[in-house]
Structure formats: C-alpha cells, structure tokens
Amino acid sequence: MSSQDASSQDIPGIEEFTAPQLLGVVWNWFLYGVLIVQFYVYCYNFPRESRHIKLLVYSIFFLETVQMALSGADLYYWFSAGFDNGDQLVTPFASFFDLQILGSVVSLCVQLFFVFRIRVLGRLSKKRSRWLCVTICLLSVIGALGGFTAGIIAHVVNQFIIGPLLLILEMTQMVANTLSGLLIASEMLYHLRKIWVRDGNLSNHVLVSIVKLTVETNLVTTSVSIVSLVMIAVFPDEIYYLCPTYVLGKLYSNTLLVSLNNRISICESCDTRGKVFDCQVVSVPGGASSEATKDTIILEAEKPQEYFMKQPIAEA
Fold it and tell me: 15-309 maps to which CATH number?
C-alpha cells in the first residue's frame, strides 16, 4: 500500500475539515481586495473628512489588514506546514485571534456607527429612538463579548470542535449580531417610510438613498450571520461555520466603506459633482423655490448632533 493510500485512510472525511477553512479564507481575501478599492476611493474623495470618522475607517482597515495577514498564516499552518496532519487541521493556530477577536471588534465598531446614524435620523424625524439605540448597543456588545470569549476558549482548548460552552458562546454571538442587524434595518425602514411621504424634494432623495443603502447592507450581514448560526445549530460537531464566519468580518468593514462612499453617487445624482466631496454638507439651488435661498442637504451623520438640530430640511 502506498503512503498516499495510507494517509487517506488515516484521515477519513478530510474534506469536512479542509473545505470550510479554505473557502472561508479565499472569500476573506477576495473581500479584502474589494475593501482596498473602497478604502482608496474613500481616501481620494474625502481627504477632509471629520477626524473621528477617519479614525474609524483607518482603524478598521488596519485591523482587516492584520486579519488578512494572519489568515494567510493560518492557511500555511493548516495546508503547508501541517500537510497530511489531521491534528493541525482542527487546531485554531492564529484564527482564535484574527477570526474571533478581530472580527468581533470590527463588527462592534460598524454596528455602533449605524447606531449613531439612527440617533441622528431620529432627531431629524423628531422620533425618540434612545432606547432602541441602547438595545442595539447592548446586543452589539454582547455579540462582541461572545466572540471574544469564544476565541480565548478556542485558544485554551486548542481545537475548533465546539463543546457545550463554545456552542453557547458562538450561538450567542451570532444571535446578537442577527438581532442587532434586524433592528438596524427595521429602524431604517421606518425612517424610509417617513421620508418617502415627502418624496420629490432633493433633501428627501438624499436621505432615501442613505437609508436604502443602510438597509440593504445590513440585510446582507444579517443573512450571513443567520447562515453561520444555522450551521452551528445543525452541525455542532463540525467546523462548517468557519466559512461564513470568515466572510462576516469583511462584509461589515465593506458595509461601512460602501455607506460612506455612497455620498459620491448621491452628489452625482444631485448634479453637484466637484462641490462636496470634501464636505459633510451639500448646498444646492432650491429649484422650485422662488427665493434665491439654498437647501441644506445632510449627506451623512458625521457632524455633531447639535449641528443637525440647526439645519432645516425643506419640505417639498
């Protein structure tokens, strides 16, 4: 019997351990390439962005770069240094940090960004959303803590196979992410319905574009969280959940950049190209108004909340 035949007998069902890791890392790298393009577009078009938003974007891009490099080290450990070694295929190596801990930090930051946006839109629509924002924040923190703890435990036990405690932590993380994503999307849909009533005004067009994109991107991340949750619940003794979990962090970071870069297409649709790429506020001719005044359009929720309270949104 050849050595190749012997090794295939030593590791039965090896594809169940290799496919989730390999596919997850490959899709992770693919989405990192998309993130690089989004990051370049952001830096080129918004060099005078507010400092706290720049800090958020640069920090997330740095964390995702570290995560991408460490996932490459994981791939080398599993499929090169550990080739034909079944024990190494179920050993986390650095994935406890780059997959669980860094992924939890990125998802928490992005969800808190959308909470801030909901808060600002709530002020604009005169809707009290404080308790909803607090609820989403708590769910986001619970999900991040669940991922943090699961990563630490996976490092301590040094294996992927989910035990009872890891099962609870992983499911807690995914349930919390799913609920927070659904709450963000539903609240944005509520604002979209209210804004739609005033359709025809330029400011309404801008707000509708912002809200629609936020709903769509949050539904994508929520769907992947649900897929990962289902895999954990249905296959608790397998590592199939690693594939969607590897993708989830990059989806969150791309969601943030797409949301910020969406201002470019909004400006183009409003025929204000070249005037507002470096600003958070756009001023355009009033159009239907007979006076020589200008309507102030809020493109994003980067200004302090006190600033928004002073900005009128013209009725149609």
Answer: 1.20.1070
